[in-house]
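Form 7-S
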Amino acid sequence: LCHIWLHVVPVKRCPSSDIETNMAVVQKRIEYSGGDVYEGQWSAEGKRQGRGRLKLANGDQYYGQFMNGFFHGLGVLNLADGSKYEGSFELGRYHGFGVYTTTEKTKYEGQFHQGAAKGLGLVTFLDGSNGQPINEGKFEGFELRERCSATSAVQKARTNAASAHSMMSQI
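Output:
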């Protein structure tokens, strides 16, 4: 059992996104029987498409762009355990550049690939330090494999995170 509210709205262009069409999309609010709630745009095919907000019964919340039903484009995922990811998604996974903050407020800023930290990045601890020696370079998972400069990747991650966070107020 679910409750549905809907109305048709013109599509707004999503910044830095391939999620555009010239057709109107349906804006829906759906409350699922399990407690999940989705509010946002839907495609003519009945899939989450464009901007939306998904609140899961377990406390996880996603605000951002969707494509074919998946988190895709820029978004913010607040997990019930207190951790958070802000940045780009592809087919429901962290992918591209973003910022992941753990429950202990340790941050990884950098590249992600298919749901995992992979590529250039920087770790920052709660006290603002990056460790000794500095935890910057090439990561696989959250393991530093090679120390090197990650300045460009960190800047892209911060930019994506800021863009995704500012989008939250527009949803």
